[in-house]
Design a protein that fits this description.
The chain is α+β, with helices and mostly antiparallel strands. The protein has four helices and four strands. The protein has one domain. The mean pLDDT is 76.
Length: 111
């Protein structure tokens, strides 16, 4: 569908939205740490540092998707007591720990 804009691969879409400086791509990536898929540790991850042409990228994306926001759908939302979410941390149950360990083992078999 996006062949007319020379966008035939997801990398083309991403590169079209990355900044250019004197014909060179500058610092395309930033390195961060994120929780590994198994949830048992951290791993390094490289991500795009910044985007330009975001309105054009959004327009291309919305040409073949039907994006509906909560405001557009007028969905009811409950009021929050403090006006912002409250995080309640709790320890993992034995069942959750067993499930996490099972997922770690499955992940290791797939790697």
């Amino acid at each position: 569908m996006l062949d007319w804009r020379d966008v035939v691969h997801h990398v083309s879409v991403a590169l079209a939205a990355l900044p250019l400086a004197e014909g060179q791509r500058k610092e395309l990536y930033i390195d961060t740490m994120e929780i590994s898929p198994d949830g048992a540790g951290l791993r390094p991850r490289s991500r795009f540092a910044r985007f330009t042409n975001l309105p054009e990228l959004q327009q291309m994306f919305r040409a073949f998707t039907d994006v509906q926001t909560a405001e557009m759908l007028n969905l009811p939302r409950p009021e929050l007591e403090t006006g912002k979410p409250i995080v309640h941390a709790c320890p993992m149950s034995d069942e959750q720990r067993a499930l996490q360990q099972e997922l770690v083992e499955r992940y290791e078999r797939l790697r």
